[in-house]
Amino acid sequence: MNSQIDNTSKEKILRAAIKIIAQKGKHGTRMDEIAQEAGINKAMVYYYFSNKDNLFLEVLKTIFSEMYQHSMHKISEDISKGKGHIEIINNSIRYSFESYNKNPDYTRIMIDAISNGMDEIPKALEVVYNNSTLSPVSYILNTIEDGIKKNIFREVDPVQTMISITGITFIYFLSRNIINFFGLNIENEEEFINTRIQSVIDLIMHGMLIRE
Amino acid sequence: MNSQIDNTSKEKILRAAIKIIAQKGKHGTRMDEIAQEAGINKAMVYYYFSNKDNLFLEVLKTIFSEMYQHSMHKISEDISKGKGHIEIINNSIRYSFESYNKNPDYTRIMIDAISNGMDEIPKALEVVYNNSTLSPVSYILNTIEDGIKKNIFREVDPVQTMISITGITFIYFLSRNIINFFGLNIENEEEFINTRIQSVIDLIMHGMLIRE
DNA sequence: TTAGTTGTTAACCAAGTGGTTAAACTATTT
DNA sequence: AAATAGTTTAACCACTTGGTTAACAACTAA
Lengths: 212, 212
Description:
2 copies of one chain form a homodimer. Chain A contains 10 helices and no strands. By secondary structure, chain A is mainly alpha-helical. Chain A is globular, with a radius of gyration of 19 Å.
């Protein structure tokens, strides 16, 4: 109902929870600390979110749906503009980078939830997927499949390629904190990410495109 | 000193800790639970490992050094056998898959530690790196660089490519527990991993090799 | 004005939680 | 056999933690 700045207590708690959970993980996070970060009494957290598990579920729902919507919006815009297969794939890589980079807290929580195969994930994804059968994943998959039919891409396995693209875009944000062990010393991160995007697109396109 | 079955209390605690920490993360793990899993009194955990932080550090050291040694051994064997650039890269991808697949507990703890950029990581890596300046990473890097000079590989950025290879091999083990959201329903995992390895090598090689 | 609903707080509690201790038990050394 | 050092345990403790409660304020509706 309140699409204003939404500075309600509930929203403040949610934002505080995201911040703390990103730092310390679900188990490492204390309800008291969330309340403190939000600047309100701990009882309020229970008033609005019942318990820790439920709060965590709401956090996941928020994260998945926000990230989903960001990618979904941009990709479907490209498709409706009639952009070509190559550009759609390349842009989807860019959008993923944007998304992960813009929301490091979201990314951290996602990694944690995914790698631990948390039970909450299916529930969180329900919210995201229940309105449409379409998703960024299905868009990319269709683009790859169609690109193969039209002799733009080699006969790669679309699902495997999809997984590979996800991994190749995800890895930097997963290992951001220890990236120096790759022998890197990143001074300007924005610049680094741009060269990384170029390098990823270069590798994937040479990997997928038909040789002439 | 004891390279036997090493069924000492200390070793039992370490193995129990790895198992529990993989399941519940560092913060979610209770010292009591580790003791119970190891079948000994909790005080023994403190006797051998002082405190939780130190136990966790020892766990990380064990994991990193075991995984490091496995890859290191296999890659340097290939190099000393005089294998070619392409085969070295392809095999290193296979070895990573083997490593991650054989030790899911290790992989989970690694992901957790890396994504949270834990302070213990540098300390844990010291143990691994202090004896030699060589590492699996440096071997791959050198192979890529040399392959470019010899006109086998395209003029890719070696470090970026190294990161990409890491991501592409890692992603399945990161998302293993929610892989069905990619539209997959894996019945025979061993078989799946083999097709995944093939697909990864195919994509990377087409991405790297010079076109003729 | 008043009665109900919603939002907020300080104080509280039972169940853990990491960590300790003192005593006992078991090799090993002299 | 006695002293020494290493290993193991039950019981303990101070403190934290998720969750509750009862009273109170503030807004809303009649």
